[in-house]
Amino acid sequence: MNELIGDRELYEKLKELDIQFEYHQHPPAPTIEIAVQYWKDIKETTHCKNLFFRNHKGNRHYLVIFDHRKELGIHSLEKYLKQGKLSFASEQRMEKYLGLKPGSVSPFGLIHDKEHHVYLFLDKDLGEMPNISFHPNDNRASLVISYANFLRFLGNLGNKYEFMDFAAE
Predict the structure, then answer these.
(1) Which of 29, 63, 107, 150 has its CA 20 to 30 A from that of 164?
(2) CA 89, CA 67: separation in Å to the nearest integer?
(3) What structural domains and CATH numbers belong to the chain?
(4) Which of 46, 5, 14, 9 lies closest to 153, judged by CA?
(5) What is the pLDDT of residues 41-65, one digit of tens each?
(6) Contacts of 75 (CB under 8 A, 6+ apart)
(7) pLDDT tens for residues 96-154?
């Protein structure tokens, strides 16, 4: 697995769970705007935006995952969560809970959240897509997996999650 860019522990977990994936290496893509240019040849896949928030007290953390073509207003998210004011989590919190650096946020980072501290909100519309993609905890590559296998991956980790209707926001 040395030739694959990304988190070695992630690749080991995918292998353990017998989860197949497509691997796409590309130059660093720390933002959606940059990543889009490298995704143009990846067909039949929904590429996801992943945002990591903390509540105003700093004692709860949320990973919000949705189709990169959708917009998410932070005020709508605050209203939905009923946790008060939200802000993007700091680099230190990202490292502590997900083992990630800014620009590489991915639900695959949950393999480092051994205490299941981070709560996920998933765009319910992702379930209509056959495949979704995320960075393998490194923004120099993208992995495409089936939606069903993604849910299996999440179920194995143990973090709690719920589906959110972003259209209703």
Answers:
(1) 29
(2) 20
(3) 8-129+146-168 (3.90.960.10)
(4) 14
(5) 888 899 999 999 999 899 999 999 9
(6) none
(7) 999 999 999 999 999 999 999 999 999 999 999 899 999 999 999 999 999 999 999 99
What's the confidence (pLDDT) of residue 43? 86
What are residue 134's DSSP bridge partners? 143
pLDDT number for residue 75: 85
Task: Annotate 39-73 with DSSP letters as a single string.
Answer: HTT--S-EEEEEEEEEETTSS-EEEEEEETTS---
Please give the structure tokens belonging to residue 94.
């990202």
Helix 147-157 / helix 8-16 crossing angle, nearest 10 deg: 100
Quick one: which of 78, 162, 81 has its CA closest to 123?
A: 162
Rounded to whole angstroms, what are the CA distances from 113 to 70, 87, 107? 27, 20, 10
Segment (H or E) for 80: helix 74-81
Helix (H, G, I), strand (E, B) or coil at 131: strand
Unique residue bearing structure tokens 């040395």: 2
- Positive or negative: CA dihedral 10, 11, 17, 22: positive
pTM: 0.92
Nearest residue to 53 (alpha-carbon basis) of 79, 77, 31 = 77
